[in-house]
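Internal tracking record. Fields below are filled automatically when a chain is submitted to the structure queue. Please do not edit lines marked as system-generated. If the sequence contains nonstandard residues, flag them in the REMARKS field before resubmitting.
Queue: standard
Priority: normal
Entity type: single polypeptide chain
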Amino acid sequence: MTRPPIALTCGDPAGVGPELSIKAHQTLGARLPFFWIGDPAHLPDGTAHEEIHDPMDAVHVSATALPVLRHPFPVPAQPGQPDLRNAPAVMTAITRAVELVQEGRASAVCTNPIHKQVLQDGAGFAYPGHTEFLASLAGVKNVVMMLACDELRVVPVTIHMAVKDVAGALTEELLEQTLRITHDALIRDFGVETPRLAVAGLNPHAGEGGKMGTEEITLITPVVERLNRDGLHISGPRSADTMFHAQARAGYDAAICMYHDQALIPIKTIDFSGGVNVTLGLPFIRTSPDHGTAFDIAGSGRADPTSLIAALNMADTMAKARTT
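SYSTEM-GENERATED OUTPUT FOLLOWS
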């Protein structure tokens, strides 16, 4: 039985999503069928695309053109100039992709970048970002953001908040939830039979025995010890400044970090263009390129498709893992 193709959302049509989608298809072609949900009028002029009416049509259309599942927008898109009137259609394109994967008509959802401010101003978007919106659509409360490339997987426990607020936001419940979701996803979606998780400390030198902070002693260590007693394989808390060189990375399958930059600096240093954003804990697969709408270069042809191609490849690999 042929596996359903991947649903790729259009993202903000004034951003780099349309041109990246064409470039991704030119690279992947029939090898990795996916279909684009959006308005064909928003694709770059002269590009090979073909409208489909059923997602499965993408399997044969992909050999010669980008398969497009038409999703009308109210106004034309001008590269680099987002239009608030198009914001509701951006949101409903995401909703449509989720519905298709929930119905089994798509094997995964891959999302092109959105612009939160545009959605908030134009459609009353009430979420911090894609991840929380997708969790709401799926009816899931707890999800985890992973950034992944071939050399490293990182998971920040806290995400978009000021550094001064991180210590107050960290709780044993949040850390345990993040560790368990990551552990289960590595088994289910990445084929890691016995996941090894490395936990970073919050403070320099992992607190240095309490001299530079006590969160490692009072919060992180108790969670690590408790989950190890439950049969998980977790090391730490480790000093974050020694976790990410090649020899250290060989000893774990994912690094659990306490805050945004602690996780994203190493992965963007190792593979700036090829990182993928993965949402763990959803009942379906969701990946995304690890960059924004890039309004400043939209329509110029300069956008790099490496991250989107990696996101589509990772979604395909995860879909295979779930069906074996």
